[in-house]
Amino acid sequence: MSTTTVPAAAGAPTEASPAMLRKVALASCIGSTVEWYDFFIYATASALVFNKLFFPELSPLVGSLVALGTYAAGFLARPIGGLVFGIIGDRKGRKSALVTTLLMVGIATFVVGLLPTYETIGSAGAIILVIVRLIHGFGIGGEQGNAILITCEHAPARSRGFYGALVQLGAPAGFVLPLGLFALLTSTLSEEAFLSWGWRIPFLLSAVLVGIGMYIRLHLSESPLFKREGAQREPNPLSRMLREYPRPVILGIGAKLLEATVFTTYAVIITAYAVSRGIDRSVMTEATLIAILLELIALPLFGMLSDRIGRKPVYLLGAAVNLALVYPTFWVVYGDHQPLIWIMLVGTLAIGHAAMYAPQAAFFAELFPTRMRASGISFVQQIGALIGSVGTLGAGWFLALANGTPWILASYIALIAVITLVCVVRLPETRGKMIEQD
Q1: Residue 235 and residue 252: Cα distance in Å, rounded?
Q2: Which residues contact 19 (CB under 8 A, 6 or more apart)?
Q3: What pTM value is reported for the model?
């Protein structure tokens, strides 16, 4: 094996002190929250207002689907960002990648808050939106794997599931913040004021959050396992990972599919669908907010559970719950049974999604050796997210093709659930693995 010569890190610790571990986990969680906040502002605005601001000539349902299509464009860039920053994470360090991705996403988000709408510059606004989403996606693609690893590689094997789940809090927390802001703005502003300037506020506020996130990330300590590699760092981590670990890559992507599909469906698509069915958007916003707040509590609990009984049983529980609830959830929205909507979203997100997302960080990190771990986890997560999220956003057109009935889309999600169940069953159990020995 050819390697890149760098100063060795002989004697570098492989397990952090409890105080350092807590600091790294908290810093990773806060930094990820800021970055996901930037990402999900766009998702929330796509579901609520972008169809009116940038695609006013289309019908409400079609306009919403087109707006979500521009959101989907970011997922096309996520694998590229994952590959690029996965290699950077394996060669230069997890911390270097994390600082760059946060700055990239933050600048792009602020630009959206200043963007003229269709009324001012016509279709050029939509083109700029797509460009911004590509930048968003590129940054987030590099964010996930490195944020997970800088924490999981500090954590001891006995509690890696729990600490990995703390990093995963960044995604739902980053979604709750813009969702809460949009809920506040839509309830306090007239529709005219909200469409004129109110929707810009969450985008512009991201500048403050990015400043906080940059300060935190610059003070992170580098992964002790990365430092320990010293002269053994792999010069071509991606190609070697694909060559030597094809089975974990393929099955890991399959495991990721349902988790990405579920979050995209129930945090984004179902809101646009419900509004097109005449359900007030505040009902969906509040129900989604309740479900994701409960997921913030559930994630560390499912992470701890995966440390006790294994990654696979917890992951399989989440996949099975979503398979069982997909038809009832769409039936509740289609039939306008509003008192049941929040119950279904709690089941699908706070239980089904959380049970998959919590152990996923440690599970995927434990599939690959240190010298190519950032490339491995980034590839699995971003290719899985691309197929799962973009596939689901594309499948959203089934709603239009089926004249507003949701059963074809629900069947598509059920099929994805079966694929994920099979892939997780075929993956090895990794609980307690000593990744320091890789």
Answers
A1: 24
A2: none
A3: 0.83
